[in-house]
Amino acid sequence: MISKNKKNSLKNILSRYDIVPHKNMGQNFLFDINLLKKIATTSGSLNGVTAIEIGPGPGNLTQILLELGAQKVIVVEKDPQFLPILNNISLQYPNRLEIIQGDALKIDFKELSHIPAPIRIISNLPYNIGTRLLFNWITSSTWPPFWESLTLLFQKEVGKRITAQKNDPHYGRLSILTSWRTKAKIMFDIPPHVFFPKPKITSTVVHFTPHLNPIPCCLESLKKITQEAFGKRRKTLRQSLKPLEGENLLRQAGIESSLRAENLSIEDFCRITNIFSENNNVS
Question: What residues bind S-adenosyl-L-methionine, as annotated (predicted)?
């Protein structure tokens, strides 16, 4: 069991700053030091690295990233009640912590041109925006991406969806887009009792490294094809892709129209997508 002292220490800090975690913002803070260090070092040594953290809250992971040698840490925090704590941490690490108050979903990270490379995004993502942030990062119009790796916490069920392979019930649009552009691997699970407030679900850490040369495929067309295919996932591809003249697409791709979306590999989807793009003069 985790020492109550660690949990009480976090609760005391929140109380000192009159902070109340907001459930509607997905705020569940990890307080176990060993697990925080394990997350921080999943991608290797932090020496010379710029780490980006989304939703730092009271800065538990932030401090670990700085202690373990990150050259710079950039945090994006939407909730203003955490700014005094983060500013206090910044004073302890002069010129190494940059605090951005704002909504991570609205920030174009590529425009942060002052960020020194290599860049790793390491975050205990707020549960309510985790998949949307990941989707934004893996569907960037610019590839290879600005980041070297992602180490992210999700709900365990979301982690299964991200890393699922074909014929798995968790396999879906997010799995396809993730595997097309990255190598994603579940590293380890984190139980509910090491968070405050305690969530009802188990979390999982997923590590991503980008494929520098993914299968050639039009991003927008792939998004469209996968949206149609998995939007009606219990239907056959003949039915789900009907709005896109799916029968013809599947015949040209040499894929049985009686299959379902979950039966196709990323290579199959890219083949269908490339035919769709060619037929519709999409580049």
Answer: 28, 30, 55, 77, 103, 124
